[in-house]
Amino acid sequence: MGATLRVVTMPAPRTHARIAARTLELTTFRNYPQLRLDLDGRCCVVTGPNGAGKTNLLEALSLLVPGRGLRRAALRDLPQAGAGGFTVFARFATPDGERAVGTSLAAGAERREVHVDGMAIPTSSRLAEITAAVWLTPAMDRLFVEGTASRRRFLDRLVHAGDPTHARQLARYEHLIRERSKLLRGGHQDGDWLTSLERQAAEAGTAIAAARLEVTTELNRRLAARATPFPVARLHVRGEVEERLRHQAAIDVEDWLSHGLAGCRDDDRLTGGARIGPHRSDLEVHDVELASPAGRLSTGRQKALLVGLVLAESHLGRDRSGRWPLLLLDEVGAHLDRRRRSELVHEILATGAQAWLTGTEPDGFEPLEGHAQFLTVDQAKVMFDDR
Predict the structure, then answer these.
(1) Is residue 288 assigned to a domain?
(2) Which has the closest alpha carbon to 46: 344, 376, 341?
(3) Which residues make beta-bridge pairs with 282?
(4) How many domains are there within the chain?
(5) 342 in a domain, yes or no?
(6) pLDDT for the residue 16
(7) pTM for this one?
C-alpha cells in the first residue's frame, strides 16, 4: 500500500453503540474449506498476497446483512470448488446483546437460507433489524465513469443506510415489474390484473424515489456541514419519477406512473422490462470544492470523494439506527496517497466502528496497531499477527 502512515495524534474512539463481529465461521465458502475466527471486537486488518482470500472474508460478512453481498455474486459462485453448498456464520456484538446470524446454501438449492439466533427468516431484508454494513471495493473505483446501474445500486445502498425498509420496497417493486413482464410476454389479456400490478408498482416505485430524494437531501446537508478531510460531494438524483416528486404530491406521481406503465405496454411487450420507473434513474455526483462532475476528476480525487461518501453513509446509518455499521474496506489504500490514507485511519478510529481493511502488505496500517487485530491470509489459512 505504499509508504508507512504516520499520525501524530489519534482521537479517542467514540463510545456509540456499534455492530462488531466476534466470531466468523466459514464452511466450503469460496476458497475456504473450513475456517473459524475468534475476534475481540476491534478493527481487523487483513493482509496477504493477491488471491489469498482476503476479499472473501469481507464478502462473507456482507452476506449477513440485507442484499446480495459486496460482489453481488451468483449463488453458484459462492461454494468452494467441488462443494455443493456453503455456510457462513457469525456472532455479532450489538446494542441488543449478542446475536447469531448465518446464511447457507444447500447442495442443489436455488436459494440460500438465512437464520437469526437459530431461527429461519423468510428474507435477508429482515437482517436490517440486526446487522448493517457499508463497504468500498476496488470495483467501485470506476463508479463515476461507468453505466447507471452501478450508481443506482450505490444510491440505494446510501438510502438503505438511512431507511432499512428500502430493501424490501425495492424487492417488492422488482417483483411487480417482473410479474408484469411475464404477463405481457405471454400475451395476457386480463387488463384488470395488469392494471392492479401497475398500480402497485407505481406505489412502490414512487416510495423508492421519495426515499432517494429524502436521503440524498439529508446527505447533502450533512456533507456540507460535517468537518471532514475528504472532498465534499453533492448528490443529485436524475430521473423522471424523482423530478416529478420535486414538484408534485406523491399521490399525483403514483397516478402518472401507473398510467404511464399502462400506456407503454405494447413497447414493453417487445423490449421487456418497463420503459419508465425508478429503475431508470441515475445518481449524479459533483465535487463541491472543484465544482466538477465526479467523472471528470483524477482517479485519486474520485477515490477520495468516494471514501468521503462511504464515511458519510456510515454516519447516516449510525444517526438513524443508533449504531455504527461494519465498515468493509477492500484494498482501500489503492489510489489514495499517504496523507489520504492517514486521514482515513484517523476518521475510522474517531468513530469507534469495527472496520475490516485489506491490503497486500501491512505497511501503511501501523497507526492501527493497538486499535486492531492483524490477520495474515495465505492459501486460505488465516493467522493472527500479534502487534
Answers:
(1) yes
(2) 376
(3) 238
(4) 1
(5) no
(6) 59
(7) 0.89
